[in-house]
Design goal:
α3 packs across α5, α5 crosses α8 and α8 runs parallel beside α11. A 3-stranded mixed beta sheet has the order 1-3-2, sandwiched between helices. By secondary structure, the chain is mainly alpha-helical. It has one domain. The protein has 11 helices and 3 strands; from the N terminus they run αααβββαααααααα.
């Protein structure tokens, strides 16, 4: 596995809780404002998770996306040096990029910046069960998650939608904002006395984008929005249930690194099942993929 091939910009084409409930109030606020002025309110189809946290505004989006792009490029260079970067001709690279094409147009509603992101989708030749989408639309799947779990295209779409949501909902930016809010007074005092500055703090946090662990609230949002993205893209959202069942079964055999940042369990699956009635009509009306790929049938020459 050698050359990295970026996906070009498309013009059109890492659990329910109190915080999730807080965020869902946002949708009602906008509707209430319209109702007060006598304008008709159109109900939105799909899931409702409210607005992103206001704490994310403490950190410039451009700075986070720039840091993510640098780390992503470094990751790809390292994989290429090990001959573990999937070439454009690899069937699983083609599969991932075709699925991404169908999901990306539905991301714009969730984050207007997504229209201008330079989306990239790559495959890393490693036995790890892992996948992620960094700020700015930088997606990577590890070969192990496709092969060891024998993921269907629908299950891949659910994972991809989940990971995209972390970027769309700016969960990394929110975490950094929280850190800035809690440590801000210390940093301001240090800066006054010449002992440090917020810029260094942001730089340190920016270097950890690949290892961030999201909280239960963020995981819940990613599950719900990810189901909707998959459904609108023509992939069966019911695969969210089978996906996490597979994850749980694999974790019983050996501790999965993926589940250290994406905890699973009966509660999570139950939450997904409760959300299905909201997204199944979207899937029923969506155009379906003209081609089915399926899981890997043979291991690549290099698996890391």
């Amino acid at each position: 596995m050698t050359d990295a091939v970026s996906v070009p910009r498309f013009a059109c084409l890492r659990c329910a809780c109190a915080s999730a409930g807080r965020r869902r109030l946002f949708g009602l606020a906008g509707a209430s404002a319209l109702a007060l002025v006598g304008l008709p309110v159109a109900a939105r189809e799909g899931v409702d998770v409210g607005p992103p946290s206001t704490l994310s505004k403490l950190v410039p989006a451009e700075q986070i996306e720039r840091a993510a792009s640098g780390q992503y490029s470094q990751l790809l260079r390292g994989a290429q040096e090990k001959r573990a970067l999937g070439p454009e001709s690899h069937p699983q690279v083609q599969r991932l990029r075709e699925i991404a094409k169908r999901l990306i147009p539905h991301t714009y509603e969730w984050n207007p910046r997504a229209r201008d992101w330079r989306w990239e989708v790559n495959l890393i030749g490693s036995k790890q069960i892992n996948a992620f989408c960094m700020p700015g639309g930088k997606i990577a799947f590890y070969y192990g998650i496709l092969d060891r779990l024998k993921l269907t295209d629908d299950e891949v779409a659910v994972i991809m939608g989940h990971e995209m949501t972390h970027a769309l909902r700016e969960h990394a930016r929110e975490q950094m904002g929280k850190t800035m809010a809690t440590r801000g007074a210390i940093e301001i005092g240090a800066a006054i006395f010449g002992l440090g500055g917020g810029g260094r703090l942001l730089a340190d946090m920016g270097g950890q984008l690949l290892t961030l662990r999201f909280g239960r609230d963020d995981e819940s949002e990613a599950d719900l929005v990810g189901l909707e993205l998959a459904a609108r893209g023509g992939y069966d959202p019911r695969s969210g249930v089978t996906l996490w069942q597979k994850m749980a079964a694999a974790n019983q055999r050996s501790q999965l690194e993926f589940l250290s940042t994406h905890p699973t369990g009966p509660t999570r699956i139950a939450d997904i099942e409760r959300a299905l009635p909201k997204v199944e009509p979207l899937y029923a009306r969506a155009g379906k993929p003209p081609r089915t790929f399926g899981p890997p049938t043979a291991a690549p020459k290099s698996t890391g």
